[in-house]
């Protein structure tokens, strides 16, 4: 028996598709067979499985479990919850791997799979290999067992281990995502006063889209913080692995700015530690880390790539502009927005007790959000190569970690190919508005020179 996946579903960092169109239960079964085969051939046989609140998730979970058991793996079902709870279960329940069924922050009709083999992320060639095994029907056979384990209390207790933060008044927005129930359990054990929004898990996302990196999705959180004069607000994405925050004045504290706060606290405990951020992060973050004796390291965008780099350089903390925050200091090195929130409370306590004051002290730079330009899968990487060639010929100062990040007296701009969509991604940061306009003109000139329309695509 063989299986062919839709060509768009096997992605660089995870497996993802539209239910009933590019992804279905037969795919979930084949993923179970393939992943189970990889676990067996690596000498393991115990796999943890969790799922998010999407309407399609229970059926996909049942099919996945069927496939895993048919490959001879014993399955531990941890049920409905956030992605980081699944990652935690692999450690806590001594599993050989784990699979989370989640559509993350995508629209309601999407779903997908995030995986880890042993304690390492499963991505790139590993995901492509799932497709190869399916195409060849090269699967192990067996009849694995199954058990259900409720790990929620244990997970919440782990989130609060070593908690030394003060009491704050905080608004929380779970966005009707998979973190809702855990959030309710968590704040019941935290000091301070807590105002909860949208903790009911609902895969139709009736209140707003669960992506806290889009400012429009933080409107309700800002209102609660303002109405009740709270200290700050925290929001989560659909599967609880990305965090968003606002300060007491309702200003967004972006991913790289959160990392400025968190890194300062971590560097007090790990002097000289290497703090990793992706290429989209502000220069202010890298300067902040260096000024506090840390080693700033710019790395490629992508949660799996960041996790792998952390292990390589023994980094205690890493983060992305997209709100993935990874703590290896006193934790496991995976992206857990609930744990990042707890550590934010602890860091703010340690650094004077006011996120608003910490935000006030940050350099006032002007920057663009992430801009996306339509470009075909075949062409996007070629365009980046062409841009790099022209920049080098012109003697520009370039960092090639992930695409082209160009430093100029005005600031910096970035152009890279997305690993997950048929787009080029750009961002720019400058000291003032006229400088930002000049940087934008440079990006547009390079896009036009490669025949890409310099019009932002709204996603």
TrEMBL record:
Does Magnesium count among this protein's keywords? yes
Which parts of the chain are coiled coil?
Answer: none
Q: Can you tell which superkingdom this protein's organism belongs to?
A: Bacteria
What are the Alpha-D-phosphohexomutase C-terminal domain coordinates in residue numbering? 370-444
Q: Which cofactor does it need?
A: Mg(2+)
Print the keywords alphabetically: Isomerase, Magnesium, Metal-binding, Phosphoprotein
**Keyword Nucleotidyltransferase annotated:** no
Indicate the segments forming the Alpha-D-phosphohexomutase alpha/beta/alpha domain, all copies: 10-134, 153-250, 254-363
Q: Note one Pfam family from the annotation.
A: PGM_PMM_IV
In terms of NCBIfam families, this protein maps to:
PhglucPhmanMutPgmG
Q: Which family does it belong to?
A: Belongs to the phosphohexose mutase family.
Q: What is this protein called?
A: Phosphoglucomutase/phosphomannomutase PgmG
- Species whose genome carries this gene: Sphingoaurantiacus capsulatus
Query: What's the source species' lineage?
Result: Bacteria, Pseudomonadati, Pseudomonadota, Alphaproteobacteria, Sphingomonadales
